[in-house]
Amino acid sequence: VKLLSQNWTEIAYLAAAVCFILALKGLSSPKTARRGNLIGAAGALLALLVAFASQELSNLGAILAAIAIGSVIAVPAARRVQMTQMPQLVALFNGVGGGAAALVALLEMTHGSTDPAAGNLVAIAFTVLVGAVSFSGSVVTFAKLQELMTTRPVIMPAARPLMIGGLAAAVAAAVAVFATGNLWLGLLLLALGLALGVMLVLPVGGADVPIVISLLNAFTGLTVAAGGFVLQNTLLLVAGTLVGASGTILTRLMAAAMGRSVTGVLFGALRGGSTAGSTAVSDRPVRSTGPDDVAILLNYARKVIFVPGYGLAVAQAQHTIRELADVLEKKGIEVLYAIHPVAGRMPGHMNVLLAEANVPYEALREMDEVNPEFKTADVVLVVGANDVVNPAAKTSPGAPIYGMPILEVSDAQQVIFLKRSMRPGFAGIENELLYEPKTSLLFGDAKESLTKVLGALKAL
Amino acid sequence: VTGVALLAVFVLAVFVGFEVVSKVSTTLHTPLMSGANAIHGIILVGAVIVAGTAESTLALLVALFAVVLATVNLVGGFVVTDRMLEMFKGRAPRASGRGTGDAR
Fold first, then answer.
1. DSSP code at position A277
2. Cβ within 8 Å, pair A355-B87
3. In chain A, what residues touch B70 (CB-CB under 8 Å)?
4. Taking 90 as the threshold, does the pLDDT of residue A42 lie above it?
5. Considering A75, A154, A450, B12, which has the largest number of Cβ atoms within 10 A of its Cβ?
6. Between A30, A214, A224, which is nearest B90 by CB?
């Protein structure tokens, strides 16, 4: 039903766009973040209502049913997902958004044929191609994270010529779509985009997934922005551009935090230098320790820093480590959490995992902020982390992680590693820190070990 | 809206986006990602319009599929972001030593 004039429609869309900007602005502090997100959701609802009220739409019943179906799928998934599985869910939501944008652009070709302005077809070609890449890339990322397939880089035979050929074909198809506006060429472009997305993500190793998720997020954002060009809708344009900016910033931050370039992550495996290292177990002597000794060390410390890694999350030990922190703080011991930017499987993942365990966000310190603190720390407890504290990143130029900024735990008086085994981390390289005199190791499942330490500490 | 006007909006949105997102606290990067994710779910508006103006049954079916996908993106994104942000709590005021209403 057409209730709104063109001008009122534009104004309402503008208001929705402002809501989205406020949603992102709210995220500058945990205090305002939740309200910001609700403002964003309100903006989305407003925009949807405007879409229905701004023009004569047929098939209303079917559209409402489709929205209902989508909500029925999405809400339980979003409510029930475990925080450790957040990266998968984000990848999946990202993928379906990209897919939807590609389909919208493709359909626009079918009845935009009356006056296909040149710029419009460029935007259509871009939306179809990048949306398809984003969709299939996200699906492969999801499969890797959900461990439906191997997390190691998968390198197909002749991957490089295939990738180059695929890219060339996609560009040619995009130009052809631009030149002719032919729907079949559009479908070909969609298929090529799907294939390219798979080829793009397959060779990426598990440790590099945070970068890929951010990059695909940026892709979908730009796809939606291009969709805004196609539909001449300023809201889609602004919303997509905001997301594109956010994805770009996060991609660059993640790459910097790993000391690697974005192209190195995406195409490194194709060149032979992949992140897949050895999984060999070293037999050099290390000093192992027991829960009682750890408890005594902690008890007489003045300042303790926890370094949580993904191993902590896998063992579901977030709650136990928070209990340990509570006991220590009651004894007047200062406790900090040192969070490396790539701790976890997506940007900021560890913060969410610890927030779930009710760790106050003030206690979480980022790398630059916490590194000077290690010098005055009596004990550092490294739980399920390895590469992010590996001095090889600074000292051995040949190492795959060389150049990655690390948490400088070796500055502390005592370092205790809670590890399951002597197996190296994702990067597959030995950690010299493990063999230093100030280091001791407590072997076992992170949660069991922490529980034992907690018990011993309470008994002291 | 002309193409040039859209281009102008795009360029300005790039600057706004970088400005706003670079101020996001690193603690909140995961909610940022899922929140941004939800925002691009607004392609739902496009999907609804395309479905409402579909000229053939096939086009309608494809468009309705796009509506389902976009709804999953939009609704799921906002719900999961809200769930995450709800968990980010500060220290209780007594523990932090700096209450909310001090320094008057």
1. -
2. yes
3. 70, 96-97, 100
4. yes
5. A450
6. A30
**Residue found by looking up tokens 């079917």 in the block:** A62
Note the ipTM here.
0.89
Cβ atoms A100, A134 nearer than 8 A:
no
Between A119 and B63, the higher pLDDT residue: B63
Q: Which residue of B has its CA nearest to A337?
A: B27
d(CA A418, CA A283): 18
Residue A387: active-site member: yes
What is the rounded end-to-end Cα distance, in angstroms, of chain B?
A: 51
User: Is any Cβ of chain B less than 8 angstroms from the Cβ of A99?
Assistant: yes
Residue A157 has pLDDT above 50, yes or no: yes
Cα Rg for chain A, rounded, in angstroms? 25
Whole-angstrom Cα distance, residue A171 to residue A109? 18
CA A121 to chain B, closest CA, distance in angstroms equals 12
Phi-psi region of A403 (alpha: psi -120 to 50; beta: other; left: phi over 0): left
Contact A78 B83 (CB under 8 A): yes
What's the mean pLDDT in A286-315?
Answer: 91
pLDDT at A426: 62
Tell me the pLDDT of chain A averaged across its residues. Answer: 88
**Contact between chains at A111 and B43 (C-beta distance less than 8 A):** no
**SS3 of residue A416 by DSSP:** strand
